[in-house]
Each structure stands twice: as C-alpha cells, then as structure tokens.
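Entry for zinc ion complex. Fields follow.
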Amino acid sequence: MSSTEALEVLSKVFGYESFREGQQEIIDHVVGGGDALVLMPTGGGKSLCYQIPALVRPGTGVVISPLIALMQDQVDALRALGVRAGFLNSTQDPDERRMVEAEFVAGEIDLLYLAPERLRVESTLRLLDRGTIALFAIDEAHCVSQWGHDFRPDYLALSALSERWPDVPRIALTATATKATHAEIASRLRLEQARHFVASFDRPNIQYRIVPKREPKKQLLDLLRTEHAGDAGIVYCLSRRSVEDTADFLVKNGIEALPYHAGLPAATRAEHQSRFLREEGVAIVATIAFGMGIDKPDVRYVAHLDLPKSVEGYYQETGRAGRDGLPSTAWLAYGLQDVVQQRKLIDGSEGDDAHRRRVSAHLDAMLALCESVDCRRAQLLAYFGQSGSPCGNCDTCLTPPESWDGTVAAQKLLSTVVRLRRERRQKFGAGQIVDILLGRKTAKVIQHDHDTLSVFGVGADLTEHEWRGVVRQLLAKGLLAVEGDYGTLVLTEDADEVLYRGRKVPLRTEPKRPAKAAKAAKA
Ligand code: ADP
Ligand code: ZN
C-alpha cells in the first residue's frame, strides 16, 4: 500500500515517472518505520529516499545536514514544488527562527533541515519533543567517521537520537564509504541493526583520465578546446591563488570561466554559482569548497589541476560530472610537486600522529590510483569494496600503459638518496637528485661536490621527465617518502628490498610529450 502512495508522491510532487535503482526499496523500508543506512554515489538520488517517506509518514522529517550554505536553496527548491519546508541554522535571525519553530510545533512543516550543532543545544531537543517527527535523515553521514576525509565532531552527538526517540526511524545517507567508513558510520550512529542499502558506485558514463602535469593550464585549455568546447564544467584547484590565475587564463583564451573560493565576497560567490547553474557552457574554477550539494545534471567535465587529498574526495568531486548519464570526462593532471606539497601540508598540520597517519594513508591511496597500470574504474570500485572488470573507457584501458623493468633505475635513484643522506646536515629534494643522476653540473651540484659522487651521471640513459616519473612511482609504491619543508627524499624500510634483496620494480612508461611541446622545446 505504501508503495503506491510513494509512487504517487514521486509523480505528483516531484514530477518523475519512475524510481531509480534502489530508491523504491529504501523508501518502502523507511515508510514502514525501519532504520536504513544508504550508500549511494553522488547523483544517485539520495534526497528522495528521505523526502518521500517524510511526506508519506505523519509528522515532520528532520534532516540533519552540514551544508548550511545550501539549506536556503534546498528549502526554496522544495517550496517551489509545493512542499512545506524550513530550516534552522546559525545564519538565521531570531525572528525567522521563531517562525520556523512555531510552524514545526503546529505540524505545518514536512521537512525541517537542521545543522548538526543545533542538536547539541538542549532547547532544540526540547523543541523537537514538542512536534511530531516522521523520521530523522542524516545526510552526508560519512562526516561522523574519524577515519573518513570529512570528519565533523558535531556528528558524534547524533548517536543520541536513537535513545531519545527510539521509535522514530532513522536513515543515514552518504556517497562516500569504503568498508572502514561504512562500518564506522553504522557503529557511531547506532545503525548496526538498520538495513544497509549499498548501491553500485560505478559511474559508467564518466571517463577517468589521469595525466602527468607539465603546463597544467595549457593542458587544461587544450582539453576544453578539443573535447569540451561550449560545455559546462568544474575545474578544481588547491589554492585561491591558482583558482584566480586559472580563471584569468581561461578567460583570456576565450573560455567563459568564473572563479569561486571562500575568499571572494559572498555576493560574488552567489552570483558565480547561479550563473554556473543557469547559464550554458560556464566553467567554474573553484577550490573544493565548491560543489557539495550542487545539483547540475549536465556538467560535462570535472578537471583537477592539483592532486585531491583522498580517493573519496576525488570520487565525490568527479561524481559531479554527468549526473544526466551522458558521456563526461574526469580529468586530473598531477605531478611530483603535488606530492611534495601535500606531504608538507601533512607534516605541518595540527593534530596528533594518528591523524597524520590517517591523512597520509589517504594520500598514498590517491597516489596508487594515479600510478596504476590497471583500469582506473576497476581500481576506484575496488577501493569502495566493489568489484568491476576493466571498463574499456578509461585512459589505462584505452591506451594500456607499457611497463618496463625499472629495477636498475630504482637502484640508481635509491642509492643516490642513500649517498646524500650521509651528508647529515644537508637535505635534498627530487630536483637535486635528478640533476646528479643526469650528470648536470649545476651551481648547486658543484657547491656540494656532488659531481664527485660515484652516482654522478649514471642515469644519463633516461630523460629528466622519465626520472621524475620514476620518483613519483617509487613514492606511490612506498619505496621512497618525502619529508619536511624542502621535500627531502628519504628511503622507506621497503627500499632495502630493492637495494639489497633483489626485489624487481616494474614501472609504467611515461607517456611521450605531445608533439607540439616537443617542437617548442627544440626551438
Ligand atoms: P544525491 O543526493 O544522491 O547526489 P540527488 O538526490 O541530488 O542525488 O539527485 C540527483 C538528481 O537526480 C536530482 O536532480 C534529482 O531530482 C534527480 N532524481 C532523483 N531521483 C529521480 C527519479 N526517480 N527520476 C528522475 N530524476 C531523479
Ligand atoms: Zn578502465
């Protein structure tokens, strides 16, 4: 019976004809009063999984969401559909808040959005006691996971919901869940007994591509001109400065690009966001602050000019492409400098060692994905505990990377690092090591007498580009590590296996420079 009611709401309120994969089962379960933990990729249609039960069940659906900046938009969108919705968060003035509270108590709201920190306040809990609650929806549930990439301490308090309202069904939803995060969400939110719904994380219409970073802005421009002329897309950069530079560069080259980062005035941000959403073919150049909860179906590409900090983040950000199911591109340019920079951030970050180890593990997993010789999609799915066969559509499937026996090269490089380590006070990064291997008498090489080392010039058989690739891959394999402010290269314990115990090191061949760049280099 509930099924027909849900279907009716789907068509009458939301204007859709049929449910997407998984939605109906979840909705029926929650309408029936059951708890649910939902893992579904971005764009899968999670919102309806709690919105429809909230409309079908008596009372108000209380939605806990960390996305304060989007609450107004979400509520406006629901109101436009005729759904009675409201929100309570810190951005409101007291009058507005009192009005929403009164509506809730009077049973005049179907969906109430709450920031998690509200639930730490006793008065909010008492307010909730005075109304009828249809269900609790905990959106972005991975925020409760300390192991995850987006931990919010306020989420920990949500475990108390089941004690105070044992009869109210709870549905937790997330688009990011490795096995470890999944288990942690279940236990921290007391959802062990809940039914778990795990949708496939495969996004077959997204083509994943990861390329070595050379001249990132030019590489990006090339991609946009050749494959995505006139398309809407998101370009992610790590810093505000590179957001600005990149947006300027694109505009100068005839691409309609708008910057978006937390340092811009709120009005500018709002305007850029709304132009991206409403106009056609706008490229938004943003820090990762942009995108959570953004619902634009025809984003044709997501480009990363810097290495994301985790596979979860990468998956979530790239997942904003192609929600309409049409072919889309996820393109990432990454280089050695990204690794050095992120290690530096991790080393200098606040927090204890355990925190640093966690963040490092996330970075390592991301690096392994970048340097993989296997199908990117299969690797991504495996990361989320799902299996997939080679997709035939990602860069490694389309142009399988060739591999070569890099054992000797690795030994040369690692023993150079060993030699430099003996000079206790001085620390050297990849640049100096590559110069030594290539036998370059730079000022810095001469200053430190590095041209007298036995390894000086032993690597002349490879190019600088290839050596940098070797460094990256050894980092990804955990045979080398980066340390400190200057990106000093150090050996890991495993490096001994290569240096002294005959471990083989297969490496992927570096893609050739494009013809144009090669010509320019000669000129
Ligand atoms: P998620 O929260 O999982 O990222 P959303 O709930 O925002 O995804 O849904 C993504 C898009 O898909 C939205 O535009 C939504 O309206 C649309 N959508 C969801 N369910 C359906 C459906 N059954 N039929 C058609 N469109 C749907
Ligand atoms: Zn593939």
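NOTE: Confidence is low (pLDDT under 50) at residues 514-523.
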